[in-house]
Amino acid sequence: MCGTLEHYNLNRHLFPNALTANHGGNHLRCGRQKGLRSHGCGIKRHCGKNPLWANIGTAMKDLQSSLNPLEHFPARSNYSVAPPEVALAVDNIFKSFGERKALQGVSFRVRPGERVALLGPNGAGKTTLIRCVSGRVRPDTGTVEVFGKSIWKAGANHLLGVVPQDLAIYNDLTARENLVCFGRYHGLRGRSLRDRVDWALRWIALEDRANELANRFSGGMKRRVNIACGVLHRPRVLLLDEPTVGVDPQSRQRIFDMLDELSDLGTSIVLTTHHLDEAQQRSDRIVIVDHGQVIADGTLPELVERTVGPQRRVSFQVLGQLSSLPSGLTWDTSQKRYACSVESLAEELPDWISRVEQSGGAIEDLEVHTPNLHDVFLHLTGRELRD
Question: Residue 329 phi/psi, 5° resolution?
Fold first, then answer.
């Protein structure tokens, strides 16, 4: 049994409409047949031998007939009709597993071309929400729509691209073969498929490694192939679950450069991550989920204003002994530093320096902390560890 597809259940994840297709009494899945390893995409490989390219077989022809044909989306600038105002609409999603309430009325919107960071501590309901939005799990109540079309209706999956956290590529296929395979899954054929595969190899900077097996790639290279497989069909909304987990800084930067290119083309991006610096720097808006509910939704300045406030925290050490503690100045016992809050550094900091000097001290090693997403996140979700 081929572990990749069975582990991630890729057909069920990407093609819910094709699950009932039965070809010659056997459901389409990975397996070994007559010495060949089949990936359900027309690409077969002799176990332990070089790749053997094969045309799409009867099984894939039947599968294709069960899927709506893919429309090859043109560049965003070529749309004759302005896109709808909402790219992704999640409305009042509830989902329970037995007695456990995973989601309790989650709602949020994503506009065309918008980059949204979806955040939450462990156990907040984020994973269940991702599965509902991608169509893998049906909520008990509520709706998910992509450009006005229900995610569970035929054809909606072509509007959505999904890049899972667990790598969903075949290690025993080359980079090019993986892309061809996933392109066929999404309905691409002929010249369109070849052009998109060539584009993807350039996009992920693996043209010179196109014919190497994926099991020889580094973690960052596999991540890039994983992302490319999810966008070959030009989705208008892209959902990425922890796309930079376990990669080095260079690969991480390359991945975000790739996502910036998609955003510039008008793709709406929903990014889940535990790296708050990624969310702060790479998103237009932030949605925070906890205990199955949306507890914050807005831009970073809006969230800071609503929670910790915009005041900067100034801390410093003092040479000499202060004769008295100026009003508003506190002693941070954990950091062993003096601290105060200011709204305007230019106007208030010179006054603080003067007041400390008047008390017999001299400021040194001054640090200024501006409220950031980390402060907002801890303020809203607390500091207690979650399992």
Answer: -95, 135
152-187 pLDDT tens trace: 988 888 899 999 888 889 999 999 999 999 999 989
Kindly state whether residues 317 and 211 are assigned to the same domain. Answer: no
Residue 5's SS3 state is helix
Can you state the angle between helices 219-231 and 190-203, rounded to 10 degrees? 140
Parent domain of 321 = 311-370
Q: pLDDT at position 154, please?
A: 84
The three-point CA angle 160-131-157 to 5° equals: 25
Q: Are residues 179 and 318 in the same domain?
A: no
Q: Based on the structure, what is the number of domains in the chain?
A: 2
- With vertex at residue 12, the alpha carbon angle to CA 8 and CA 16, rounded to the nearest 5 degrees, is 155
| Domain final residue pick, 202, 234, 266 | 234
The answer to whether position 20 is within a domain reads yes
Does any domain span residue 42? yes
- How far apart are the C-alpha atoms of 255 and 250, rounded to whole Å? 9
In a domain, 334, yes or no: yes
CA distance to 137, 178, 332, 355, 366, per residue, from 359 (Å)? 64, 70, 18, 6, 17
Tell me the CB-side half-sphere exposure of residue 141, using CA atoms within 13 A.
5
